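Record copied across here:
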Amino acid sequence: MVTTTSSLPEGDSADAAVVAHWLEMLPADFDEQDRLFLRKAADLALAANPERRIPSGEPQLRHALSVAEILAGLRMDRETLAAAMLLGALKDSSIGLKTLRKRLGRKTAHMVDDLARIGQLTDLSSAVSVEDEEEHAENLRRLLLGIAADVRVVLVVVAEQLHLMRSARGLPQELRCRLAKETQEIYAPLANRLGIWQVKWELEDLSLRFLHPDEYMRIASQLDGRRADREQFIREVIDLLREKFLAVGVNAEISGRPKHIYSIWRKMQRKAVDIEQIFDLRAVRVLVPDIAQCYAALGVVHGLWKHIPGEFDDYIATPKANLYQSIHTAVIGPEEKTLEVQIRTPDMHHHAELGVAAHWRYKENAKQDSDFERRIVRMRQWLDRKGESETANLLDGVDTEMEATRIYVLTPMGKVVELPKGSTPLDFAYAIHTDIGHQCRGARVDGHIVQLNRSLRSGETVEILTAKNGTPSRDWINPHLGYLHSSKARNRVKQWFKHLDYEHHVELGRAALEREMTRLSMSEKPNLEAAATKHNLQHAEDVYAAIGRGDLSPIQVAGLSGRERPGVRRKPVPEVPRKPEAARGEVVVAGVDDLMTGLARCCKPVPYDPILGYVTRGRGVTVHRRDCPNILALQKEEGERLISVHWSDGQQETQYAVDFLVVASDRKGLLRDISSLLTNDDIDVIGVNTNSDRKTDSANMCFTVEVQDMEQLSRLLSKIEQLPDVNSVKRLL
């Protein structure tokens, strides 16, 4: 039977006297500094919504103190207790995050904020079809873990659910059953995954008591003795085993527990047996250093008590398919009561608790997800270690490892949708249905209109606004504009454009390539045959079509003009075979190692511009663009001093100076906007020259910046072109 005690005074009051009494009853391991910190949290909680009550009728503050008391019993730190005390404090309250950060610190404020976001999910048991119930429950569990950036938030949520279940007896039956179903499907499995066993079994027993009261009472009446008596029986068994193991030199760590009512009921349902055929109502686990001592411990157990035929499994000699290893045996123990004994090494135990054999996987039949399981493992490890040193220090080391790579958002109907972290409302639209994505024209997030390239957060509710005849925009597949994050959505948009008329794609691609080459001041045409071969296309026109569809970016093709073109002999300079080992620097001179090279200041070549070398007197080789006016003049006068050079395939991270011109309508803040964009992209600016024409109200702005290659330059010019009032952007020679 489930029985609980509380340190709160009897009655329905929730005032300063109740808070003071609660602080007095805190465990002794909370020192004076901890109590002062919790006093601050209590003062804030008293000031926020003093009249608010939870659905059971209990005052909000009294409920929050009860949750904090549960967490104190789990030996959680003061920040966790403070966050629990401030449950609901941000709702309809003058207290804001700024105040919380100032009074209680950043981490506590973030926890309270996450709890407030979770608190907005008022009805997790949304109406879903029977076949989708299991997936929906799993996604809700992931949603709660996704919202919580700090594992302690999940503990507060689970502890709050436990107190709601403890105080649910007075609720109407319909509400009580809905609460119990949520507990059974969402919160108890969360506690199970995090290894909070004492909370897990109480949640499960309470949910069974409300959902199947007759079954609960029948099993409770069949158990011999109260849970406290069964726990005392386990302690006596552990003491006896420890004594016998020491006598024969077995170094063992022993733990045990009586099986709780819900677990017994589940096993009876699964195996279709009665309680007399359940042999692990009482169980102990023995951890020994190595396999030899596993069998030595087994000998001691079987020497003490008679084992039950048919109830012995050696998973060490024959591991399960998931590599689980352990020895299981059932015996007739003291007082003629059945007892299960599990024997394993610490490595086997770690694999069973945190590896692929982890208990929660087969108990919940959860789908495989390596990233999600990594987060669970890190949370479990933190919870196991929390008593070793200051909790805050432990959290600092694992925050990034607990960070989720997926988000979980809700449809207006309450269905959970899983997306990659960084996804936008447009990604969400395509996750719902391809046609909704194609027709998307806007989105509301938590009731507010947002931009389609705004990143979503776990727990948000997203509503998509569509146009009946809407079609995708090419901007959606521009990676620099950030409309789509998921590859699935991007592929759907590309497929749509791919099915447009082929000739239309060719014309769009040709125009896009010419526009890109004009913007980058590239005069030498790219080798379309080489581009077709490189990208598994059959003809040169297929390259244009691929650009028009969005499968290739113009810079991917334009950049080929400065790379080696098989079968093409450059005139007038004869090609000299180059040595493979020479291709280690920035620019490689054909057939010559370790020759000093420098980039010409007149044309400022950037990888992968078409280039040519000029042999100077005493200063090595100066590298020019092939269309540089100076190099064109030298071809006639000093052609013999020109030499073939090429960009190295193994480029180092080198910065190259390049000039570009921005032509725009003159307005205040234009230079600031461009400078902010350059700063955000970590682009170094060497020089700026601006000129405004008051008559035409236009501005010409020349920038000299450092970039790594032509692709980075192309991305930069694309972004600047998207700024308001910018008419054109072009590279200067």
User: Anything to note?
Assistant: The chain has 28 helices and 20 strands. Residues 227-364 form a domain with the Beta Polymerase; domain 2 fold (CATH 3.30.460.10).
